[in-house]
């Protein structure tokens, strides 16, 4: 019986191809929009996750909160306190340095470019994806001696010097109102995340980057506003529970006045915002499915009117009310489902094409496709109930008299 109903539904659809297609159009647009928006949201969430994975999910910033009533001199960290923290929490901390960085112009001959100077410790490459392609990484002597040695990023080296074969060369820059020569001891290649590639696709980044001893950047006072640390694998929460009370006591502050802000928390916050936005915009796009459902109801009412004699003949030959109702419900569900399939194809195609054009991996979840197609069929059934019920309740004698 089901196969017979499906066959009859196909015949009705083929008999009115253009009308059936126009009826499907609302579902095509609705499902295509929902698939595209949800997939774009999932793709952006994957980009953010990839970016934070590169930053380091075990990374955290430690400081006395900016929002205390009065920031005291004792709220700063000193190098001695840094070393004490490193020693006391050595089982939990893999890497810790002062948060030190600044931007300045680098000058080599007639070449100039804006550079970001990031202060690091000698074991920075143990916690970050740093590939040394020329020379060496900073060593402990560079840190302790506050040497003006730098490891330049590959693209910055090519732009400023015209080559990566620049070990021993120097450039001039002015930091904290002091102009000095900085010596290149290494060149590294940066791991380009999908997010970075996306940003670069919108235009060439004019800022280069380099790493140098953090001791050069903290200034003559050695006062440190905040600490940048990486916890050992699986030790981040344990470290937070131990180090926050310790620093609160050391700084004579409440525990709530100590910030321990992790990259994982920021990633979770960003993911939540993007997920909410994707859901909200997807829901708005889903309104078009209701419009498509109304179109299906309208066309099925027209179909019931046109096929009144057919309904009368079927009922006169013994078809039950349920059989007629199922026939028209099958037809409305098929129209809706076909529109859903076409909408999915268009939505997936647009997202994949767009991702390919800007160089990112499009994320299309199979479960979203399944839900979209299933929902489109349900919309067809729901909005087909009234026309099907009307057809099923038709009096066979009146139907046979209908011209």
Helix residue percentage: 55-70%
Largest sheet: 6 strands, mixed, barrel
Shape descriptor reads elongated
- Please trace the helix and strand order, writing H or E for each element: HHEHEEEEHEHEEHEHEHEHHHHH
Strand content: 15-25%
The whole-number mean of residue pLDDT values reads 79
Any overview of this molecule?
Helices cover 57% and strands 19% of the residues. The protein has 403 residues and is α+β, with helices and mostly antiparallel strands. A six-stranded mixed β-barrel has the order 3-4-9-6-8-7. It is elongated, with a radius of gyration of 33 Å. The two termini are 28 Å apart.
Set down the secondary structure blueprint.
Elements: H1 2-15, H2 17-55, E1 59-64, H3 79-88, E2 93-98, E3 101-108, E4 111-120, E5 130-135, H4 140-144, E6 149-153, H5 154-161, E7 170-175, E8 178-190, H6 194-201, E9 207-213, H7 214-217, E10 226-231, H8 236-251, E11 258-262, H9 263-306, H10 308-316, H11 321-358, H12 366-392, H13 396-401
Parallel strand pairs: 4-9, 6-8
Antiparallel strand pairs: 1-10, 1-11, 2-10, 3-4, 3-7, 5-8, 6-9, 7-8
Helix pairs in contact: 1-11, 2-9, 2-11, 2-12, 9-11, 9-12, 11-12
């Amino acid at each position: 019986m089901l196969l017979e109903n499906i066959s009859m539904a196909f015949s009705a659809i083929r008999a009115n191809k253009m009308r059936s297609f126009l009826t499907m159009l609302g579902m095509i647009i609705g499902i295509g929009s929902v698939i595209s928006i949800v997939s774009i949201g999932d793709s952006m969430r994957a980009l953010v996750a990839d970016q934070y994975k590169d930053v380091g999910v075990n990374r955290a910033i430690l400081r006395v909160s900016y929002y205390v009533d009065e920031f005291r001199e004792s709220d700063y960290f000193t190098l001695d306190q840094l070393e004490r923290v490193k020693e006391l929490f050595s089982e939990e901390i893999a890497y810790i340095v002062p948060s030190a960085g600044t931007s300045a112009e680098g000058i080599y001959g007639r070449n100039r470019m804006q550079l970001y100077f990031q202060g690091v410790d000698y074991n920075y490459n143990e916690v970050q994806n740093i590939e040394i392609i020329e020379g060496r990484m900073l060593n402990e002597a560079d840190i302790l001696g506050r040497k003006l040695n730098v490891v330049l990023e590959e693209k910055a080296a090519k732009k400023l010097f015209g080559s990566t074969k620049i070990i021993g060369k120097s450039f001039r820059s002015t930091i904290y109102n002091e102009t000095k020569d900085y010596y290149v001891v290494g060149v590294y290649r940066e791991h380009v995340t999908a997010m970075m590639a996306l940003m670069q696709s919108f235009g060439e980044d004019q800022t280069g980057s380099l790493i140098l001893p953090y001791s050069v950047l903290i200034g003559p006072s050695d006062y440190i506003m905040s600490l940048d640390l990486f916890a050992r694998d699986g030790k981040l929460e344990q470290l937070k529970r131990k180090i926050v009370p310790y620093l609160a006591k050391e700084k004579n502050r409440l525990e709530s006045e100590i910030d321990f802000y992790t990259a994982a928390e920021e990633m979770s916050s960003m993911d939540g915002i993007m997920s909410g936005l994707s859901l909200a915009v997807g829901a708005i796009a889903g309104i078009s499915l209701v419009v498509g459902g109304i179109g299906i109801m309208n066309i099925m009412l027209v179909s019931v009117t046109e096929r009144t004699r057919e309904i009368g003949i079927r009922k006169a030959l013994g078809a039950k009310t349920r059989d007629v109702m199922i026939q028209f419900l099958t037809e409305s569900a098929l129209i809706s489902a076909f529109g859903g399939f076409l909408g999915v194809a268009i939505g997936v195609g647009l997202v994949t094409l767009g991702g390919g054009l800007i160089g990112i991996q499009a994320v299309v979840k199979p479960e979203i496709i399944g839900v979209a197609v299933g929902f489109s069929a349900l919309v067809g059934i729901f909005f087909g109930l009234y026309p099907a019920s009307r057809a099923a309740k038709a009096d066979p004698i009146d139907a046979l008299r209908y011209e």
